[in-house]
Amino acid sequence: MSMPVHQAGNLEGADSAPMPNRRRTRRFNKAFFLNKLFKNYFLFSILTLCAVLALVIFFIGRTAILVFGDVSPAEFFFSLDWTPEEGRFGAALFILNTLSLTLLTLIMAVPISVGLAILMAEIAPKWMKKAIRPVLDLLVGIPSIVYGYLGLTVLLPFLRELSGEGLGDGLLAAAIVLTIMILPTISRISDDAIGAVPKKYREAAYALGSTRLQVIFRVVLPAAGRGIVAAVILGMTRAIGETMAVVMVIGNTPQLAKTLFTPSSVLTSNIVMQISNVEFDSAWNYALHMMAFLLLLISFALILVIRYLGRKGGAES
Amino acid sequence: MNRFSASRKQIRALRLDRIATACFYGLGALVLLLIFWLLFTILGKGLPGITLSFLTKLPEEIDPGGGIGPMLFNSFYVLILSLIISIPIGVGAGIYMAEYAPKNRFTEVLRICVESLSSVPSIVFGLLGLAIFAELLGIGLTILGGAVSLAFLNLPMLARVTEEAVRAVPDDLRNASYALGATKFEVIRSVVLPVAMDGIVTGICLVAGRAFGESAVIILTAGLSTSGEMWDFNLFSPGETLAVHLWYVNSEAIVEDARQIADKSAAVLVFVVLLINLLFRVPLWFNNRKLKR
Amino acid sequence: MKLFKKLSLLTVASALLLSSAIAGTAGAKDTLKGKITINGSTALLPLTLQAGKEFQKLHPKVKISASGKGSVTGPQAVKKGIADIGACDWDASVDVPGFKAFDGQVANKVAVIPFATIVNKSVKVDNLTTEQLKGIYSGKITNWKDVGGEDEDIVVITRSFGSGTRVNYQAKALGGGDIVKKEKNYKEVGSSGDMKTAVATTPNSIGYIDLTYISGSDIKAVKHDGVAATTENVINGKYKIWSYGYYMTKGEPTGATKAFIEYVQSKKFQESSLKKLKFIPISAMK
């Protein structure tokens, strides 16, 4: 490694004599000044980040809280009737739909992505692993709106054909699109978690005569468990917050999704569909902001869970 | 486990092992096939029809044959503006977290902030932009609003990738430099950053790719229309981007060839994102190879 | 040197000529500058876009940007200050059923918008009565065979709340009847374009839209009580499902906005482009 040995040597001061004294101090001052300046700049940067977060919470929360001036919290959180034009703001249906969509997505995404992670980390030869990773990265690169568009033009007609439904819009279509979207997130992080399991665990298990399958399911997966759960939760935050891909295939009708093919709406899709229809100072606008605030709270809660898992995992190993 | 007890149980376990291995390979093959099929569908349907005039022409609202010029321009313009805003702050924040942050409560709080911010759904940033620019400042839906809101979205990701890249720099290098009497900033500037540059650039590419395709934020903050002319650098023009246009043309299909325009726009979007990733990463891959040898 | 002189003379002359030519087309209002943002009704959007294009040719310094969602977005955006003109399919300066008046806004009448019932090309029915439509949209009739078609489920596509097309359609085609949410075979869409795409791509679907959007072979308009949805039938009073389209402004329009609205209301635009788009000039209605 070639290292830039630069003017820094002068800072040592007295013993490296030949420099004229004044020049040395000036240089020293400059270095010292820059050091100080940039330390503060870096600190300023991170504080800006925090300020943005505060801004988000303040602006969304400030408007959101106003909803309870017009709508009782009980109605907002427990009523399934969202008819804003008649003053009924039951957001429970969006919350429930978001939850069921996320659940459905995870049911499909977790086995596939964890399976893929196992393949990459434990089974496939090294060259194959190296080939799969960039390809998964390609999947990350495709914009969500393109996923939505493909869902609309390819998946929906296919589902219509398959199920005999009139429309095909609904939870199932949205969940399939989301599954593909969060697949790389979950499998990449799970892959890392599995890779972090100490080799000696595996060797011990093999020494006892276990097959690879047994090693994977009885030793590696339990050991990597927390990491995998963290990966799944990270995928979850993506699924819950995704907007445009969902908007294009879910049907956008504010009603509870009782079947896989009921055209319905989730928190994100309802916000983006209705926000331009409302006045800034109306209960409807406040309600939409409260829904956004709920999204925020859910994401924060999930992040805390990941942190908790991470800390526990760290303490064990 | 001796030879004599190589029992049925063991044979079954071995067979199961083989079947499972096959299943895992099958799953992997399926996923890969799916990915290639997706890319093939998007690019295959759209790319062949793309001409230079499609990329530069103004969109038609009623007659067929419109282009995507202003949207494509806005996409890059908004992206570059947002990166100009977010890179200095995001990278700075990442460096702070990796190099300066002491191990204490305060740092812990900062870390929670970064993680929380990165989990904020993009639609919420859209609402924030709407609240600040349309409601508070009253300047309506503009390129500026879109770029700033997008920059908010980029910030936490940039901070994270920078932090990871900087942390990956071996301490030996730092110590050697300190030993030569360098100040902390000098160490960062001339040792840490050059070494971490690969990782940072890769991270920026990922962020740029995501921002290029972002639509929820732009719809709420930059609007669904352009100023109707090419090369409009005015920050206060409405700034519909290509990703938004894909949605718009699909739902406002007045023109007869809306479907083709959507197909082509999708192909251009994916193509550009792939390009952003490839252009910057391929040289890095080669570099890495050389370094490792 | 001589050549240079000649050349410069030529340049000056041609520049003069060019500028006078531009001035000639743009008339005395060439000084018109500004930015007009238009939001609102997607039913009016094709008209707005076409007018915007023509207007910008006359006044290159005016920037017009238009986008659409539901009608209510128009006056809403004007109120928020996001838009200078809010396109709306009803007079939003007075109370209408379901919507309160927007105080301080002025309604500028710009066109007559005919609406039509549309079905997917797979549907064999070509006439529906008010009663049948009421039945379909209230969820009482769910199969095409009950209205003279084949034995297929009816897929109802409707505009979401805030759409002027919905307001007018409900009042005039459904005779004030309700549009009832259903769990199956029911979808709400946010704009006219969405409506067109949805009906065009969903077999056995029914929807409603303004006449401008009806083109191509995937959707077809059906007769209402035996009357075809054509501009002639609107003008001669046989076809009832239409409304005026309005440009809402904050107070009386001024400057570029005023000039634009005047252009849209001008005889030149009303009699040519507006008609071509299957809207009806305001002057045609008595």
From TrEMBL, chain A:
One Pfam family, short name: BPD_transp_1
Chain spans, region Disordered: 1-21
Compartments, record wording: Cell membrane
CDD domains, per the entry: TM_PBP2 (cd06261)
Membrane-topology annotation of the record: Multi-pass membrane protein
InterPro entries for this protein: MetI-like, MetI-like_sf, Phosphate_PstC, Phosphate_Transport_Permease
Residue ranges annotated for the ABC transmembrane type-1 domain, each copy included: 95-306
Keywords of this entry: Cell membrane, Membrane, Phosphate transport, Transmembrane, Transmembrane helix, Transport
Gene3D superfamilies xref list: MetI-like
Transmembrane portions of the chain: 41-69, 89-118, 138-159, 171-194, 215-236, 286-309
Main location: membrane
Task performed by this protein: Part of the binding-protein-dependent transport system for phosphate; probably responsible for the translocation of the substrate across the membrane.
Family per record: Belongs to the binding-protein-dependent transport system permease family. CysTW subfamily.
Name of the protein in question: Phosphate transport system permease protein
Automatic annotation (TrEMBL), chain B:
Pfam family, any one: BPD_transp_1
Cell compartment(s), UniProt: Cell membrane
Topology term for the membrane: Multi-pass membrane protein
Entry similarity comment: Belongs to the binding-protein-dependent transport system permease family. CysTW subfamily.
ABC transmembrane type-1 domain residues: 72-280
Protein name, entry field: Phosphate transport system permease protein PstA
SUPFAM superfamilies in the record: MetI-like (SSF161098)
Keyword tags: Cell membrane, Membrane, Transmembrane, Transmembrane helix, Transport
Organism this protein belongs to: Paenibacillus vini
Automatic annotation (TrEMBL), chain C:
Superkingdom of this protein's organism: Bacteria
Subcellular location: Cell membrane
Record has Membrane as a keyword: yes
InterPro entries: PBP_domain (IPR024370), Phos-bd (IPR011862), Phosphate_ABC_transporter (IPR050811)
Protein topology in the membrane: Lipid-anchor
Signal peptide bounds: 1-28
Ranges of residues in domain PBP: 28-267
Presence of keyword Metal-binding: no
Keywords: Cell membrane, Lipoprotein, Membrane, Palmitate, Phosphate transport, Signal, Transport
Role summary: Involved in the system for phosphate transport across the cytoplasmic membrane.
Family in the record: Belongs to the PstS family.
Subunit structure: The complex is composed of two ATP-binding proteins (PstB), two transmembrane proteins (PstC and PstA) and a solute-binding protein (PstS).
Name listed for the protein in its UniProt record: Phosphate-binding protein
